[in-house]
Amino acid sequence: MENGAGQPLGERVRWLRRRARLTQYDLSELAGISVRAVRDIEQGRVRRPRTVTLARLGGALGLDGDDAWWQRRPRQEPRPGPNDLPGIGILGPLYIRRDGAVTDVQAPKLRLLLALLALRFPQAAGFEEITQALWPDGPPRSHQGLIYTYVSQLRGLMRSGEPSPGPLELARTHGGYRLVTDRAHVDRTRFEDLVARTREARTAGRAAEALALTRRALDRWHGSLLADVPQLRQDPAAVAVAGLRVESVLAYADLAMELRRPRQALHTLRSVAREEPLHEGLQARLMLVLASCGEQSEALGVFACVRRRLMDELGVEPGDEIRRAHLRVLRQQLPWPDEAEPPARRHREPPSAPVRHAAPSQLPNAAGVFVGRAAPLAELSRRLLPDPRAAAGRAPVTLVSGQPGVGKTALAVRWAHRMRDRFPDGQLYADLRGHSVRRAVTAHEALRQFLRALAVPDGQVPADVDEAAALYRSQLAGRRMLVVLDDARDEDQVRPLIPGGGHSAVLVTSRARMPGLVARDGARRMDLGVLTSGETYALLAELLGRERVDAEPAAAAALGMLCGGLPLALRVAAARMAESPGADLAQYCAKLRESGVFHELDGADLPSSLRFAFDASHAALPEPSRRLLRLLGMTPGLHVTVGVAAELAGSPPDEARRMLRGLVDASLLEQRARDRFVMPDLLRGYVAELAERREAVPSDQY
């Protein structure tokens, strides 16, 4: 049977299959037909294949939506493939393809702008980040006009010499510009979509289909990401795409060995491992694939080279994964191809899977009594839970901030325990002690803790924090893990602990609002407020007993108000009342009013006392801000303006505004409007007491 152009159908199927780098077996698996049927069609032994068979072959060959592809008259090729479509490429050297020809973008500014737009696609790139990318050392005065000029020039390059809109367009948005095209026309999104299909196939147990789809995804790459635009390689989106490529290569090698086709992955694995010489996961798989293909000597040479490089550059020995691969090569515990398997091993049981360490589960015990917080818990799920249908990208980071004692840690740990099944590769937890009587944990100390949990020996953890962070990101690549960073002090403590991408998630708690983490690292902040009156009543009922609270509902409401709705204050108050089971709530409220909340709620357990929670935040402030806070506590009225603060502090308004913003960032003030600030009631009582003592808490005490 021949198509409308007179070209034999079998030759056309063979050409398309080879262009897609599929074996006859791969094509049969993807199309759902037998290998024999594929072979007979290619060799011309089937004169009239059924239409449904041809449609399945078309879908497997990437000709989706063309149900009569075998009847189309080709020009020079059977059908334009992915590399013939108009498009923009960043998975290698930057290019624009139109009219079947590739256009190299020569002007440096145009290259930067196009690369940034392709990284952000299908979202827009904002004017501010465009300006930052084009002029990292500061923009010229005429930068807005220059951006318009560059956009106009890019539009000219993307259009095929016609004024009407084409398949590649550049549109103005409210805050910037974005590419307007199909996802298949940008190699990055085409790659991500194929990876998503690969995950679905692998999850469903369709290993051969997943292998073929991974091959098609990796074929989108034609070099290193942004090979000729190095300025954007550290952009979070670029780091995420590069990490997804490594994750895909690892999966490709695993699938190839699982299906006993190691040679199919060898070229790609060798190429990417050359670009990532210190990635032990890639090097370990390269060793196994080489040895499975009969290249044992080269596999052992890879181990020797990696070991030498790790010792020379990082001063560490190879990790467990590559050492296990080395041992398997020596013992020939390999997934031999059917045609290459040693006869002595041909009838043995397949080798056991490599040893896997137990997934770390470091979460502390959740609070025994926890009430309410339904909305914040739901919001955390919305922000942090991985979407199995989505391609891997930037690891989501959520920062839970709020005043001392508001229950940030309890919320984070409760949510983490509820969702631990959604992170099957483990949960990492670190108390960073940002506001503690003990010294704060450094980022490097936290990295050491996490790497130990990930089975990296102490002796192999680099002494440099950046190198340790790189090793940590490599360990998390391809995993679905939850990282909980509790009581963080500042952005520098958190940044090295954020994974490079994939489907892991990071949950941070801190009294600081960390605007830098939000602006630079894409974290999303969630300000946790005090308990509602209903939640306060429910917590007291759990702590003191329902009958006792129901007997004095008005007193329970008053106690909640005296404690400012803070869970910590309520728990300490309930503990005090538990010491006197016969006392009623009204009497205790009167005692609080008479003695003062902070005096009454002090305790021997310093870290759990209410005063300590506020003292630690107060001590972390610079002295001018401490003085202003004490002065604000003595000021009557609910609201404070910048003018009032400036007068109290004896400073210019700009300096007063800066100090007020610092107090807001430390969760010690709330900003209700641009020029109006409010101090929480319970904190006002603490600050007033400090002012009465007319002394600050020495910072070195903490």
TrEMBL record:
PROSITE patterns to which the protein is assigned, alphabetical: HTH_CROC1
Lineage: superkingdom: Bacteria
GO MF entry, a single one: DNA binding
Record has Mitochondrion as a keyword: no
Membrane-spanning intervals of the chain: none
GO biological process: phosphorelay signal transduction system; regulation of DNA-templated transcription
Chain spans, region Disordered: 334-359
Domain HTH cro/C1-type: 16-68
Protein keywords: DNA-binding, Transcription, Transcription regulation
Family, per entry: Belongs to the AfsR/DnrI/RedD regulatory family.
Name the UniProt record assigns to this protein: Helix-turn-helix domain-containing protein
Annotated organism of origin: Actinomadura rubrisoli
